[in-house]
Amino acid sequence: MASRGGQKIPTLQSSYLGYNARLMLEDNSLFQGIGFGYPCDLAGEVVFNTGMVGYTEALSDPSYRGQILCMTYPLIGNYGVPSKEIKDEYGLPKYFESENIQVKGLIIYELSDVASHWSCIKTIDQWLYDEEVPGICGVDTRELTKKLRVNGSMRGVLSVSKDDVLDKAKASKMMKSRRYGTYEGWNFLSEVSVTEPREYGDKNRDCIVLLDTGTKYSIIRNIIRIGYRVVCLPWNTGYQKIKAYKPKGVVISNGPGDPKVCKSTIETAVQLIDTATPTLGICLGNQILALAGGADTYKLKFGHRGQNKPCISLRNNHAFITSQNHGYGIDAKSLDKTDFETWFLNADDNTVEGIQHKTKPIIAVQFHPEASPGPYDCMFVFDEFKAIIDKYYESNDSNEDKLVSNPSSISSSVQKNLNRKKRRKIAKT
Q1: Other CB atoms closer than 10 Å to residue 292's CB: what's the count?
Q2: Domain check: are 31 and 114 in the same one?
Q3: What pLDDT is stored for residue 4 in this prediction?
Q4: 31 lies in which domain range?
């Protein structure tokens, strides 16, 4: 056993590996492999991620709910799985993005049967077994990815068994079942959102309400980083309940599935827009704000999932490398009939990667500015949100908040309100 600064580095051996396994897609493609993790049969949407590292963060990302994930990087599992007891400076698990594995199943080319890292406490097959998630290795993930790129994301059935795997007929029936195989039109938010309010950070600080449509821990830590307390609320929380917390702003998080099924959240977003509440949307939150503003969304052919997706800011034509995980996008043409405008574009396919309101303090990005896994190039989005809030709220002499719109102009209704306050103040003097 090696050591790191006097600390012994564990070397762990795989335990839940060697099952019979088969992956079948809706076009009748068949991939044989070796099963690992938890033996069971399940159906879901098959997607791929091009990231090279960060599988613990990726597998615990709630945006993957309902999906069977194919990792394109060939070797997975070599550094094992760390303990959730390792916390960051804010008391959140450092190497995970939620409490559990969120993917339905995992597809990889080669599983490292040995894990060695100073932080690891278990192998990835042990982790999957503990959380009842099946995996398959020995699959030609390059061929599978090419198929998904050409044909688009497809439904699939993953069968992992100590004995016989599902035959084609049973797999096909499971795939067509609404209960097991449907992804489009399915609302996953109740599965990934908190069910009651949770608070994070210093209770003495002003709060930001985080509308949890499947949030990652990294969003929470970045809101705390810019100086706020986080109040995390369920995905279907109404505007009045949000307002009761007197937040300085609202963040609508990432999450899984079709944004159009998030009707309660869209209704809340409509009110956030109408009241010019400082708001930041991330990933699914970006799409929800677009729908609330009158734009349209659609399903991408195979989505964007990886850590090196280039985006161009239309403000300054700068390129940024981003982390992404989404299968739906905003219809660019539909933005023309709204009060939103495009902020970022994807350099690969020109899809909308960010929007901003023309007169109100509302911004949103399709990528993940919090990364995890991925580059930290776009952390400035959180800092910009703080700047928007600071500009929006300015205290008068009696410490009452007054509204200042963003990005550059004050709306007429707000301006009239400010003028009335100014006149009252002059009259008193």
Answers
A1: 26
A2: yes
A3: 64
A4: 3-176
